[in-house]
Amino acid sequence: MVSFNDFIDYVWSFYNTKDGIYPLKGITKDQVIEASWLYLQMCNYPSFPTFNWGDGDSLDREHVRDIIIDKYNLTWSS
């Protein structure tokens, strides 16, 4: 099982603007932390049946990315 901090670092490594693979303009690590926490909460409530924690896999990362984009209205860096 991946730790919460490892998952945060994993998400950050993909979307940060310094050396991320798919950088999101304006992203902060605090946003990643908040969106990850929200996603974990969504995985634990029956009202969100489409979300299931995959032990920090790429699908979890993409769900967190989508939450960040929607919540903070971020766009891809060019």
Textual characterization of the structure:
It is globular, with a radius of gyration of 12 Å. It has one domain (4-76). The protein is 54% helix and 5% strand. It has helices spanning 4-15, 29-43, 58-72; strands at residues 24-25, 75-76. The mean pLDDT is 93. The chain is mostly helical.
Q: Briefly, what is this?
A:
Helices cover 54% and strands 5% of the residues.
Descriptive key words:
2 strands, 5% strand, mainly alpha, two-stranded antiparallel ribbon, 78 residues
Mind sketching the topology for me?
Elements: H1 4-15, E1 24-25, H2 29-43, H3 58-72, E2 75-76
Antiparallel strand pairs: 1-2
Q: Biggest sheet: strands side by side, in what order?
A: 1-2
How many beta-strand elements? 2
Q: What percent of residues are in strands?
A: 5-15%
Helix share, percent: 40-55%
Q: What gross morphology would you assign?
A: globular
